[in-house]
Predict the 3D structure of the following.
Amino acid sequence: MKGNKSHPLFSKIFYLYYDGFRSMTVGKKLWAIILIKLAIFFLVMRIFFFPDFLKTHFKNDKERSNYVFEQLINQE
Amino acid sequence: MENIDFSLVDWSRAQFALTAYYHWLFVPLTLGITWIIAIMETIYVRTGNPEWKRTTKFWMILFGINFAISVSTGIIMEFEFGTNWSNYSWFVGDIFGAPLAIEGIMAFFMESVFIAVMFFGWNKVSKRFHLTSTWLVALGSNLSALWILVANGWMQNPVGMFFNPDTARNEMLNFWEVFLNPIAVNKFLHTIFSSYVYAAAFVIGVSSWYLLRKRHILLAKRSSLIASVFGLLGAAATVITGDGSAYQVAQHQPMKLAAMEGLYKGTENAGLVVFCFLKDAENPENQGHKEQIMKIQFPRLLSYLAYRNFNAFVPGIKDLIDGNPEQGIPPVAEKIEKGKRSIHALSTYKREKEAGNISAALEARKIFEENFEYFGYGYFDDDYNHLIPNVPVTFYSFHIMVGLGFLFVLFFLLSLQKVFKNSIGEKRWFLYAGILMIPATFLASQMGWTVAEMGRQPWVIQDIMPTMIAVSQINADAVKLTFTLFALIFSGLAIAEVSIMLKQIKTGPKEEGN
């Protein structure tokens, strides 16, 4: 492990992660899966399939509150 | 109810169920195996025996695979809250948001920081610091589950809040009442202990496979020892907390208990069904009901489990719908009337307040609050079948879960006996049974959630918000599309996980120093 004498703690933490990621074997495949999964979830699903209904349809909390209120009293 | 698009409700439910089932493929293994790894590493640190280090590192890799695949599968459920369940998300306000936010912060700090030390810190930090990190990962993952289950417990027994009619949101009045909600406490304990059983079965199953193949014998035997003790304690605790959960269900969700037991007509000295089949009732008076055939039961035990009294009356579905004056159970028609009164009063409050008629608004608010306890019933009409959960699904799921739960106690007892006699690798049938315990514990765990969530229908928040009111008014076809998309993506990810996991198991532990 390399080290930075002026900031040994930060340097130790940095190289803990740096060396850890570099020396991974199975982990590399897992990280690929994680990154692909996160990209699908956040860049595809979140944007195209899962917009926040109330945030996209109403400008502010007052309008959102009124909408839910109408839903509560009109679906009886 | 004529305004409700039931296709949208059903597809939204199906989508959420699919996501939750998938998420729960991985979570219980994480919750339990981290403790097993921590115990193994503790033995390594105390003895200095490198074989224990090798064993610890092997299970740590399998945990890492499971953790990586499961990362952020729970996020999808949060997406769904905003898209498919927007009425619910707004209605629950900060009560649901606060525990989830605490969970997010805790999970991030405890798991992400200490998992890095756990995986990357071998030979870089002291043995004791590494060991502490491993224990903290186990603690952190279990604390994450705590907050999620507090939120879920509140939905099953909403306490510690009041509904603000000006914002259409619930607001937290008492954090401790929400946190110490008896349903949440029992749910948390029952869930984590059952997860320990799952993880122990996983360790024994993999070890059994090695013993069948006559590979890594020492690792397999030592792992079986730890997992047998851990699994036996977990299975016993699961049974005890299951009893606590059933007691709480009887107090707060009697309809769920009746569905779990397939009990239509309530009775004193109620027996606990051990085995039976349900079939459609033949008597026209009981149309839509199920009859129990080939029944085996423990006399009077259900009364005791539900009310701690062998003679107690346990209400059936019919009592809860039609009412039972002798037992002080109001008919559901009365609750519906109060619910409708509450909804009308809410509407009046809003109208009068906007018109500036403050005294009329306050009067309406008073009526609303007096009847709020049954607010959700106001959305139902004369077809009371909508207030009954799916009895066969709830009944069979419950009995499969309980039956398997007792089987696990026996299995771990037997496994422990074989480990102590050093005969665990001798009987091939037992090793095959060990492998089969992996899907069996998984099945029991999923059945448990099926009972919890299907059994509480039609409520998303008990008595206050029905599931059909919680959904967003979006296109049902869009929900079908995302359901299909999820099924494909999740299947792909599950296949990826299983194949990486199997490959790693086949490879086996590395020799120390590699």
Q: What stands out?
A: Residues 8-74 of chain A form one domain. Chain A is about 75% helix and 0% strand.
